[in-house]
Write a structure and sequence with these properties.
- With about 900 residues, the chain is α/β, with parallel strands linked by helices.
- It is built from 26 helices and 27 strands.
- About 35% of the residues lie in helices and about 15% in strands.
- The strands form six sheets. It has an eight-stranded parallel beta barrel with strand order 7-8-9-10-11-12-13-14, surrounded by four helices. It has a six-stranded mixed β-sheet with strand order 2-1-3-5-4-6, with helices on one face. Strands 17, 20, 21, 22, 24 and 25 form a six-stranded mixed β-sheet that branches.
- The chain starts with 15 loop residues before the first strand and ends with a strand.
């Protein structure tokens, strides 16, 4: 605290600070704001205002606008009734020689007013002052994940107890103070901590002592740091919101009771319900002012009424139990994520029981793709906004932006406008711009790891600026951000303008790439690593997530649609792949031109140089995609013409794409540690990233070189054979297993009846599947309860499960990593045989496989109609393929061969 007295420049007198505590509810926050104002002024003392106190030109009055004391003051030109929204404030002086009034709706507004005085140097202004402000978004928050880049030994996804070994930064108070100061400066008011099951690290339960996952010393440290964090956040006007998944159990608890920590199709038992309710109650009792962010889906199936019952009969009662235990009348906020659950239906059931509810949904999935969202996803957001509670936009994961720097103010401003105008939302929650799973570090390859909060300052500043107020003009923003960049890097304003222009141009590249060429908006794809040719020309093989094109992109076409229309001579619609392939290179070229003549920075020099390198990286990435997409369109032309000359025309662009990727690899080799911070088996595209593999461009370059070489070889083979390359398939053989229950087997063939309660029969299947021993099920029972098979096998096997290509609720849902992180625990996420079986009157069936080592196991098929098509050796069916039983045409995948045993 400074003890130097400042003098009023207008009158040459010392400032006098008068305060009123009338109406104050949050004393800690009020006192923090008052002390901060004293520091800004340079005072060590202040006086409580009393009626009759004379306020002259040296006086500053500090208080809540609605209290009687403030209303009695001479603020005739200020309408105090306008300070009626939370966090709003006014800084007012009627005329030169008059006192300065700092007024606000609440304690947070007073804090923001103080920061406005400091940032705007308002104490130097001599004349009249009238600044009245308040946020447009009710909640403005950032998130930090207590997660890691890889799984802990013996644990599954999201299972990370709070320990110093896993999260040393969590126990660093200076880290928290720096981060909270950043949040306060940017006027964020919510901090979300993401973890699968935090309760077993933060509370003890007398009824379940085995649930504690940390030792006593660590538990004591966890209590201490959590209280410190919540207290420091509260002073700065910040809610701490603790996130958790359902249903995850602590490992020692699960082991004692013979349960799994996670189970997608878990049966909710009284034991699980009692433990969870008491955990939440203990947490709320201990931290009554901490909110909760609930993910009902993903770790539980959410079919039927399970999600509603769990939320209304376990979670909310647990919160109420905790409030009763400490006699608290205050309902902490509960935010329901609309992820893998019917959120409108859940909210309808929950609101009569609990009023302080909010909803949250992902803005562009797990990426940033567009500021023109539409379609079914937009309808869901609007339905949640129309419930009447605050709906929060979750800018999530950003899998297509990492690991590079991103801070395009124009793209972000337009996105926030879309949140208001399209989604009708007034809350924001942003993830770190990159490296969420590696907090607090960036992916930059440096001698000392860089901190995200330092590198990505522009990301945090932009989202906060526009969630506070979005309607700034283009000219205002160009001036504002050019000045910010000039000050941050110590460059001229002219250079700041040029650098801003480059940032805006590269800010369009990654969003356009994913929304027009990608497989998914989820983090199973790392788009900065490029894509295989088969992923571009046959996206359905890789589990295409169509919502990416239907809702999270402007109206337009996929590559496969574009090629078909070209062949048929039909008109194109909206944003096309060829258009984007050209545009991303134009963006990159403009960015390169903008930075060519930049002067030398005098501040943050190393980061400046890395930002410039990122511009060149985006240029190489844009060229790689542009060439490869053009080659893909040409390859698809061969699908329709079977003209080898057409196929050969793809070669120059294909070769150019690899050359561009070589540049990309060189630019990233010594500057980045990885492309993706989630380095687990969930990573699938462009290559399966299990055990931290295929996470860097130098690992992917040989893949693309081999892919090109394979294509050249295929061209030669086609020239010599003048026909199609045939890949013979041998018939699969059934492997017997010992079931714990009675099962009815049926030989797999045309005319086979696989449902005991239906007369529907198989009409189409490939020859290699004929003769397998399928398992006949009851369709109605499968729809109501799913199927659980307990079995024992003497050697590793694969179960073949057929899923219908239809999203109707009557069919069992396919394993999808976008909504279920456990969807590949048995290798089941990818369809191994596409277009494999058809049952009369039913949609096409894709076959997914579940692998099990020798031993005793349990196969669970989710509720809904599905087919159990047989059991084969786990050594079989390692390479996915398209059976194409309806003769829809060759998918061209065989042209690109293999890379070290993996089919490209």
């Amino acid at each position: 605290m400074s003890t130097v007295m400042l003098f009023n420049p207008a009158f040459g007198e010392e400032w006098q600070l008068f305060y009123s505590k009338d109406g104050v509810v949050n004393d800690a926050r009020y006192s923090y704001a008052l002390e901060k104002l004293k520091a800004v002024i340079g005072l060590t003392n202040s006086s409580e205002y009393t009626n009759g106190t004379k306020l002259d030109g040296s006086a500053i009055y500090f208080g809540l606008a609605a209290n009687p004391t403030s209303k009695s003051l001479d603020v005739s030109s200020l309408d105090l009734n306008k300070l009626n929204k939370p966090e709003s404030f006014a800084i007012y002086r009627k005329a030169a020689g008059g006192p300065l009034f700092v007024l606000a709706k609440d304690e947070s507004g007073l804090l923001y007013a103080v920061n406005q005085i400091r940032q705007g140097n308002l104490l130097d202004k001599k004349g009249a002052i009238l600044i009245q402000d308040g946020p447009e978004m009710v909640l403005r928050g950032t998130s930090i994940g207590l997660q890691k880049t890889e799984y802990l030994p013996g644990r599954d996804v999201y299972e990370y107890p709070y320990t110093e070994e896993s999260f040393p930064w969590f126990y660093d108070k200076d880290h928290w103070v720096d981060y909270l100061d950043m949040m306060e400066e940017n006027r964020y008011n919510t901090l979300y901590l993401w973890n699968g099951h935090p309760f077993s690290s933060l509370v003890k339960l007398a009824d379940y002592p085995e649930a504690l996952e940390v030792d006593e010393a660590t538990f004591a440290k966890n209590e201490k740091v959590y209280r410190f964090l919540t207290e420091e956040a509260n002073k700065r006007g910040i809610w701490v919101i603790q996130m958790f998944y359902n249903i995850i159990l602590p490992k020692p608890f699960a082991e004692k009771h013979g349960l799994k920590t996670q189970e997608r199709n878990r049966v909710i038992t009284p034991l699980i319900e009692d433990y969870t309710r008491k955990s939440i109650a203990a947490f709320v009792e201990k931290y009554p002012n901490v909110g909760l962010l609930i993910t009902l889906g993903e770790a539980m199936e959410g079919v039927g009424e399970d999600d509603i019952n769990w939320f209304t009969n376990t979670i909310i009662p647990g919160v109420k139990d905790g409030l009763r235990a400490n006699n608290s009348p205050y309902e902490p906020p509960i935010i329901l994520r609309a992820h893998d659950t019917d959120a409108p239906k859940v909210m309808k059931a929950a609101l009569p029981n609990y009023k302080n509810l909010y909803t949250m949904a992902k803005y562009n999935g797990e990426a940033l793709t567009t500021y023109t969202p539409r379609g079914k996803w937009a309808e869901l957001h609007r339905s949640l906004s129309n419930i009447g509670t605050v709906h929060v936009q979750n800018v999530h994961i950003l899998a297509n932006l990492e690991p590079f720097r991103y801070g395009s103010p124009d793209f972000i401003q337009k996105s926030v406008k879309a949140m208001h105008e399209v989604y009708l939302s007034n809350g924001l929650h942003i993830y770190p711009q990159a490296s969420y799973w590696d907090w607090p570090y960036t992916a930059d390859k440096t001698s000392k790891r860089m901190l995200q909060v330092d590198r990505d300052w522009m990301w945090y500043k932009a989202w906060s600026r526009y969630s506070w107020k979005v309607g700034y003009s283009k000219a205002e923003e160009e001036q504002f951000w050019a000045k910010c960049l000039a000050e941050h890097y110590g460059i001229s304003l002219e250079n700041g303008q040029a650098l801003l222009y480059a940032i805006e141009e590269i800010g369009e590249i990654s969003p356009k790439i994913l929304r027009r060429f990608g497989i998914t908006d989820g983090n199973r794809q790392t788009s900065s690593l490029g894509m295989l040719m088969t992923q571009l020309i046959n996206p359905y093989r890789y589990g295409l997530f169509t919502l990416l094109y239907e809702s999270e992109a402007p109206e337009g076409e996929m590559i496969i649609d574009y090629a078909e229309k070209e062949h048929k001579g039909e008109s194109h619609v909206g944003e096309t792949p060829l258009q984007v392939a050209n545009e991303i290179v134009v963006h990159a070229n403009k960015a390169i031109q903008a930075i060519e003549d930049l002067g030398k920075p005098t501040k943050n020099i190393e980061d400046f140089e890395r930002l410039i390198n990122d511009v060149y990286i985006h240029h190489a990435l844009a060229e790689h995609y542009s060439y490869k997409v053009k080659a893909a369109i040409t390859v698809l032309g061969y699908k329709y013409t079977k003209n080898q000359a057409v196929l050969a025309k793809a070669l120059p662009d294909f070769e150019a794409s690899v050359e561009a990727y070589k540049k990309l690899t060189a630019l990233t080799k010594d500057t980045y540690l990885y492309a993706n911070s989630m380095q687990t088996k969930q990573r699938k595209i462009p290559m399966r990233g299990v055990d931290g593999t295929f996470k860097h461009w130098d690992e992917m370059l040989p893949v693309y070189e081999q892919e090109l070489a394979n294509f050249k070889h295929s061209l030669d083979s086609l020239r010599k054979s003048s026909g199609k390359i045939e890949v013979p398939l041998k018939s699969f053989e059934s492997v017997p297993v010992k079931f714990s229950q009675k099962v009815e087997l049926a030989e797999l063939k045309k005319g086979a009846q696989l449902y005991s309660d239906q007369e529907l029969v198989i009409t189409h299947l490939p020859k290699e599947l004929e003769g397998l021993q399928a398992i006949r099920t009851n369709a109605e029972q499968q729809k109501v309860a799913g199927t659980v098979l307990v079995f024992e096998n003497s050697k590793p096997v694969k179960f073949l499960v057929g899923y219908y290509n239809n999203e109707d609720k009557v069919f069992a849902p396919k394993p999808v990593l976008e909504i279920d992180a456990s969807a590949n625990n048995y290798g089941q996420a990818e369809a191994k045989i596409r277009n494999a079986v058809r049952v009369q009157y039913m949609p096409m069936v894709d076959i997914h496989t579940y692998s099990f080592p020798a031993g005793k196991h349990e196969l669970k098929v989710p509720k809904g109609e599905a087919l159990l098509l047989g059991i084969i050796s786990d050594e079989e069916l390692g390479t996915p393929y398209n059976a194409d039983i309806d003769n829809q045409g060759d998918d061209l995948d065989d042209l690109f061969g293999f890379y070290k045993g993996t089919k490209l």
